[in-house]
Amino acid sequence: MKSILFHAPHSSLMIIMRLTWLNPELRRSRFACIVFLALTLIDIPASKSFAAGTKSLRLDSIQVTLELRDESLEFALKQIEKRTPYRFVYRNQEIKKVNGLTLESATRSLAQTLSLLLAHTPLTYREMNEMILIERTGSGPQSSVGPPLTESLPAFSITGVVRSANEPLPGVSVVVKGTQIGTMTDAQGKYSIDTENGIATLIFSFIGFKTIEIEVNQRNVVDVTMEPDVTQLDEVVVTSFGIEQAKQSIGFSAQEVNGASLIQMRQPSVVNALQGQVAGVQITSSGGAPGMSSRILVRGITSLDPNANNQPLFVVDGIPIDNSTYETASGATENTPRGLSNRAMDINPNDIESLTVLKGAAATALYGVRAANGAIVITTKKGTAGQLQVNATSTFGMDHINKYPHFQDEYGQGSNGLYNPDDIFPAWGAKIAVANLIDPEYRYYDNVKNAMQTGKTFDNHISVSGGNKIATFYTSVGNTDQQGVIPFSTWKRTVAKVSGSLNFNDKFTATVSMNYSNSGGNRVPHDRFMENLMYYPVTRDVRDYEDENGYQNYVGLSDNPLYTAKYSTYKDRVDRILGNILLSYKPVGWFSLNYRLGTDFYSDYRREIAPGPRSSTDEFPISATGYMEDTQINSRILNSNVFAEFKKGLGEDFTATLRLGQELFQEDRRSSVVTGQEFEIPQFFAFSNTKQLLYYNEMRQRRLIGAYGDLMLNYRDMLYLNVTGRNDWTSTLPKGNNSFFYPSYNLSFIFSEVVDLPSQISFGKVRASYGEVGKDTDPYLTSTVYTNSLGFPINGILGFSRDDVRGSNDLRPERTTTIDLGAELRFFENRLGVEFTWYKSNSRDQIFRVPVSEAAGYPTIVTNVGEIENKGIELILNANPIRTGDFRWDLMVNFTRNRNRVVDIAEGLDEFPISTQFGYSGSTVTMKLKEGDAYGNIYGTSYQRYYQGGAPENLRYLDHDLPLVIGANGFPVRNTQQLALGNAQPKWLGGIRNTLTYKGLSLSFLIDARYGVDQYDQFHNFLSAFGKLDYSENRNDVVVFDGVLADGTPNTKEVFLGQAVGPDGVDYGQGFYRVYFRTTSENFVKNASFVKLRNVGLSYSLPKTWLGKTPLKAVNISATVNNIILWTPWINFDPESFSGGAGGNATGFTGLTYPSTMSTLFTLNLTL
Amino acid sequence: MKNLRIKLSIIAAVLLLASCNDYLDINENPNKPSEVPMSLLMANASYRTGDNIQSIGDITSYYVQYLASPNAFGSKDVQDATAFDETWQNLYRMMSDISDILKLADEQNSPHYKGTAQVLMAINLGMTIDIWGDLPYSEAFTGEYLKPIYDDDQSLYVVLTSLLDEAIANLSNGTSDLSPGSDDFIYGGDLAKWTKLAYSLKARYLLHAANSGDATPDDILAAIDKGILLNVDNGAIVYSDQGYDVYNPWAKVAIDQESAILDGWISEQLADAMNGTSYPVVDPRLPFMFSATDEGEYIGVPNGQGRGTGVDISGDRSVISRDTYYAANTAPILIITAAETRFIEAEAGLAAGNKQRAYDAYIAGIQAHMRMVGVDDADISTYVNNATVSVGADNITLDLIMKEKYVALFLSPETWNDARRFDYKYKNMTLPANLNPELNGNYIRRLIYPDSETSRNGANVPSVTLLDRIWWDEQ
Questions:
Q1: How far is B106 from chain A (nearest CA, A)?
Q2: How far apart are CA A1147 and CA A1132, in angstroms?
Q3: What percent of chain B has pLDDT above 70?
């Protein structure tokens, strides 16, 4: 709304500080040949006490050297703004008239300079707060500005005070709506205005604050409280290399999440904390164990290789860090998954100031190869100048499993419907109620619930920060301690952080930050746990798992899950240091040189122990021989980045910013696995006590050099063009192909600056970008090697065989190109904002490890092939529907839709499998890539469908709507040809956050939905095989299957669903559920959509008056509940967990993973 | 300003230096070599060929009812259409390694390595053909053809015999720069024994081919004469006691059973063939082959039916055991033995009309096996002299030969070849309970191709059912 009378710059202290850094260069300037201008700033008092109204000595003491030749007043004021902490507030039309100023070069006080400048004008100046108000002589806060439109005499006088957070707000524009009558508040925030009568609307506006309209209703006193508008035009986004950019200037898609939103859910993992908050981002937790990994995808899968990393780059304070998930090692033994952490867990969300998600190639082009899947740019908290701040937060939480499958409790252990307390089948036996009359021990136990416990979380965090004009610091210590719902699973994390910055003088700044973390816990074998729980008879008590000697009470088919959880241990301990130094040298206003050096070093040590037999008689040990395994991973990432920045005005209307830089990246990773097998002395777990030692180690090194340039042109703060180029040289591609260049172009146009828009529209921007990113690959894929065979050396003889992968010396870099179009509109004085993005991204020349026929000689070959296309839309809506007095309602909605398509696979291949997950007897499913399909199709067996006139050839998809073909025996016919049964990529994702605040009380809730996603439910497959779910209570029914016979006529044959001989005298063998149901994948590939109440938070800040005499500045108590399922068609545990761990791409598989939990947390936050 | 310019040029120079190529020249794999000597490949190939034999034996032993699942409906028991991907994978990886040895042996003028590698190739390829039929071979192993075509199984049998003929020639070549030694886990570099192994294998494959008329009994008998006739020459992988990973794979099965992961249970068919039920003589080899129950009896489980109620998971039925010849940690995995060679001779002799030779070989086969597993001489002669065994040359029949060969080739994949040639006509052998309905009441005749082939090489994979026969089994 350019109709505001005053072009008054900013009031909030924070915004001013940002702008003093950014804005001078963005403002128009003239060439030095016309004007030579020098402003010298001396003797700024160190303490910041620009108290309002003190027309102090300040204006006299600040010296300014200024020379003007035939310049406008506006220009002169802007030059002064550049070099002083002051901002000018004035009415445009009054200023514009003053031109032709000439001032001899001299050093004068600011007061003197202003007096000279205004000498022959009708204007005068006044200092208010951090501003200097330029106004007409004689006009003051007491009188209205400008003549009234009408001749009639003012009849109704209104006065009042404008405040912000109980402080008076000077300089606020007060205008009678529909007239040109206006005034400004004085130093005490007071105003007085006359209207014709009392029927008028007053508009209060001030940049940096939300504009308010208030109806007078014939009141003589109208007091107003204004609120800062954080979503103002000056919103800043942290982009590549920690550079702050005004959000309006960027032409790509980026979304910021502030620290407060991140800690709302009290999640120890920063990835989980993003759930539902960002458009275009999909987060999947691999399970509910403490410290378990979560996977994050920005705009879907871009690399098809089953092992490729498709997750975004994590950048902390400008330095990329490792976020890998290294599941259980594949040393000598085949390990069951243990649910290890993704390494971004080493960051404490409490230490995060803000987080920006950069989406698409244009957004990340400057980061180069590692950010081809987007980037998560984290800015950690820094100290600010001023008083020492101490903040302490303490959280206690409890976890419960948020969803259980519906189990049957009618039938007990046995098979063929017969009572047998020794049977391997846990629930195909007799009716419990009947057999209980003979054997009182034969009764139902809800073992799945009984085996679980209440999980607990303790989280404590304390931070101290502060500083002065020269140095600031932030330091914190946080500790998280969790116990999982599966007994014996634990995780702990301690993070200590120190950061500080030092301004040696105005030219040189050094910032240092260090983050030390120690984390780890006992990771239970959750897959085996859930599997064993499933095998466990429903008529035996799972909690009775060991005798007094520590021997296992073995029942049924498999180990007792609790016994395994207790004794089969896997403990990890990660020590990590993230260090970061930024040196910034700014000798002159238009040039700066920056150097950043960062390191990410960690040591990840793990020990697994599987005890062997305690003695050799009548015992069921976890392992026949016993073994232990030590894994040690050391990783070191070094990153060096130097860049120079030039900012220059070009003529009146253009500002150009050029950044040139160079980056070095080096990653070293060493891992070693030692396995000892067969303990000689039982229960003594040391390698010296094992019969066989196997040793495996690996070194990986990767290096990268990048050179980049980034040019930003700004036309009148309304049209921005940004062009970037980067060249990378990588160690992982063959020489000759290891250098590659890629550009990006971004255009942003703030049309609301130019076009006259209806007054409801307060801001409008369109943007377009095109970007390319190259991507290299893992080390050592350029050669074909041999590998040491397991178990060798034998008798001192080494044995080798071909490696699984045939390397290639012709690899080229992968290329991802993204077109990204967007628009941003704000309405009703920014109370409603809409951001829309459409994108299309194509990833070509993908480097695959293509699985090929084993007969080819190598099961996998590496080659450049394939193209995948992702298209999608993202929608973000921010609204503030209600804002009356102390009550307000804020709303945030985001929506994401991504569609992908495999455009091309490898030459000579039209399909290949990504991953396979086991299912009983033919129900194994495979995620396959096929040309033309969407990524994520799950293939498996199905019930045959009836096609009139015969099934079409090359059938690919299962048509669920067609009638089943029923065989002559009365049961559905299985189709063993693999058909696509569903797709594991969600059709859309969405989130809605509502925040309601009333004085110190705040209630917020986040609803999060995932729709149109299919997953294979392995646990369901197992449960069905063992007769554990409630639907199998119909096992003794006689039914007619709905469907048609091969000739198309309706099926009428009655069949028995149960085992053995049915009422009709026919032997039904293992029965319907085992013969037909469990063997058909279709029954287990199911809709895994959900709507979740992801988070409900209630928080209360004690009124400040209560804290009056205490040393406390603020006290906040809050309660949070996370992860409540509102709706899902899924019959098993929470469908959100998948079983692969965050490293892999096979997200279509769920199953025997650690069940998800609902957590309830209580937090106390104190500020000193 | 000038100062700045100097600083900038220093920085530029540093950047240029930093981007020199050496910095990036680190992509040579420090963990794994791109070339290895033949002996390292030979060590792995000779040792792990035993794993391949066991891996197939662990499938076929259920089809021929040596073993049975303790639980009802065991998928191998009921002869389900199971895709044995891992077995296929291990066989092809092994053959790919062997193809590297063949290439290196030529390059390094080492016919002795080539000969042994050719025999190893013939062992692995032969087993693969016998369970799957048509296979990729002519376009296999090189990494050049990503979707190798399938060669006809009958033509691959020609490859098999020529591999063995060439091997025999190479093994006797006087000039070999390098020769296998301790890297050979089968014979420790004894080329004479390798030659005998080649002849015995040739006899085995000719016996299969003879079924379809591609070989004559005389061809077979000619090979037998130079084959393995004494246990000391048996083709066997000698396993090490160094640790679990290098134990005999049947020992691992026995270890699983010991720790309640039920595996390695003896079928009622085999137990009854030896415990006096099917034949009126108790076989003295019983305690050397598998465990007795807690009551000292030898009882098996009926295939497909499970152990039944009231049968404990240990001690109530016979299982393979580490206390026996076959499943000790260091037990050998047998490729081909003197006993098998004798039974081939017996069958060929019978077919050639030479009943005396057939009978003598039959007796020699029994004796060789009994000596191998450790039966003492007195017990051997008691058994051999039993009237139902020592029937005399005139009364020798194929049934008798197959009956004895069945016991003597316990756990060997070759028994399934015999069973199919013999049409599963072992005494008292019946279809398992809960037989896979796809088989329509017939015994399984082959394996279906693995899922990895169907999904990665689908266009070339022949469409087969479990009732389609390998070429030598066709009627």
A1: 19
A2: 16
A3: 96
Name the residue range of residue B53's domain. 1-63+73-189+439-468
Question: What ipTM score was computed for the predicted complex, to two decimals?
Answer: 0.93
**CATH code: domain of residue B130:** 1.25.40.390
Of these ranges, A142-146, A185-189, A713-717, the one predicted with the greatest mean pLDDT is A713-717
Contacts for A1106 with CB less than 8 Å, ≥ 6 apart: none
Name every chain A residue with its beta carbon within 8 A of the beta carbon of B72: 415, 1070
Please tell me which residue of chain A has the smallest CA distance to B305: A1069
Predicted local confidence at residue A139, as pLDDT: 45
CA A1149 – CA A1139 distance, rounded (Å): 6
What is the pLDDT, as a whole number, of residue B351? 96
CB-defined contacts A:B, below 8 A:
240
Substitution target from B455, B457, B460, B464 for chain A, most A beta carbons within 10 A: B455
Residue from A875, A890, A912 nearest A990 by CA: A875
Look at A223-237, A368-382, A395-409 and tell me which has the smallest mean pLDDT: A223-237
Is B245–A692 a contact, with Cβ atoms under 8 angstroms apart? yes
**pLDDT tens digits for range A219-243:** 888 888 887 664 443 466 777 666 7
What domain count does chain B have?
1
Could you count the other beta carbons within 10 Å of the beta carbon of residue A1031? Answer: 12
How far, in Å, CA of B230 to CA of B252, rounded?
29
Is A853:B456 a contact under the CB 8 Å cutoff? yes
Q: Which residues in chain B (335-374) have CB-CB distances under 8 A to chain A?
A: none
Whether residue B401 contacts residue B347, with contact meaning beta carbons closer than 8 Å, is answered with yes
User: Is the pLDDT score of A195 beyond 90?
Assistant: no
Which residue in chain B has the smallest CA separation from A777? B27
B378 is a domain residue: no
At A722 the pLDDT is 92
Q: Give the pLDDT confidence of A120-138 residue by residue, as tens digits.
A: 777 878 766 556 777 766 5
B99 touching A (Cβ < 8 Å) = yes
Per the CB < 8 A criterion, the answer to whether A58 and A127 are in contact is: yes
Q: Cα A737 to chain center, whole Å?
A: 34
Residue B394 lies in a domain: no
* Interface test with chain B among A782, A794, A921, by most B beta carbons within 10 Å: A794
Of A644, A783, A861, the CB nearest to B146: A861
Quick one: what percent of chain A has pLDDT higher than 70?
88
Does B255 map to a domain? no
Residue A1 has pLDDT above 50, yes or no: no
Query: One-letter amino acid identity for A803?
Result: D
DSSP 8-state symbol, B266: B
Q: Which of B88, B148, B309 sits opposite A420 (nearest CB)?
A: B309
Q: Are β-strands A832-844 and A591-610 bridged in parallel, bridged antiparallel, or unpaired?
A: unpaired
Give the B window 174-233 contacts with A, CB below 8 Å. 182-183, 185
Helices (H) and strands (E) in chain B, counts: 16, 2
Please state the separation of Cα A982 from the chain's center in Å: 27
Asked whether residue B377 is assigned to any structural domain, the reply reads no
Min Cα distance A857 → chain B (Å) is: 4
Residue A104, pLDDT > 80, answer no
pLDDT digits 0-9 by tens, A1030-1060: 999 999 999 999 999 999 999 999 999 998 8
DSSP for residue A1077? I
In 3D, which of A992, A974, A1121, A947 has the Cα closest to residue A1041?
A974
Look at residue B20 in the predicted model and tell me its pLDDT: 53
- Range A315-320 average pLDDT: 89
CA distances from A799 to A803, B40, B115, B249 (A): 12, 5, 19, 18
Strand, helix or coil at A291? coil
The minimal CB distance from A802 to the residues B93, B261, B309 is found for B93
Largest CA distance in chain B: 115
